[in-house]
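Posting for a labmate who doesn't have an account.
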Amino acid sequence: MVEELSIAAGDRRVPADLYRTSAPGGAIVLVHGLSPLGRRHPDIVRIARLLARHHRLVLVPQIEGLATFRMSGAGDTSVPFTESLRLAAAAGRTEAVILESFTHIITPPFWSSLGSRVRDGGRLLQVFDALLSDRLDRVIEARPLSPAP
C-alpha cells in the first residue's frame, strides 16, 4: 500500500510516498537520484515496492534539488555525507553505509577509482545480504572498510 504524505522540514513541507507493509520489520528512507520524475521514477517505485514486500516500511521523499538538477552543499554537490551520518545517529539502532565511488554529478575515471569501487562493492553486498536475510538491524560499518591484503 502506498500513501502520499508531506513531511515538515523547517518552515516548508516535503512531499513523500510511504510504502506500507502488513508487518514491518524495519524502516528505510530511499532517496531518488537526479531525475525529473523524482520519487515517482519507475526504478525507485520498483525498489520501494520490493522492499515493502520484504517487510520494510519505505519512505521516499521528493528532493526538489535532485529533481530539478539544482544543487549546492560542501564535499558533495547535493547532500554532504555527514547528513547521512547524523540521520543514522538520530534514528538509533542503525548506521549509515557511506559509499566512496558514487557521486551525484561527476564519475571519476575507472582506474583511479578502482579501489573505491571494490570497497563499495563489498559494502553493497553487506547491505543486500542484510536486506535479503531479514537482518537489517545488524551493524554495518559506516567507516571505510580496510583494503584486502
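Reply:
Got it, the C-alpha cells are right above this. The longest helix spans residues 114-132.
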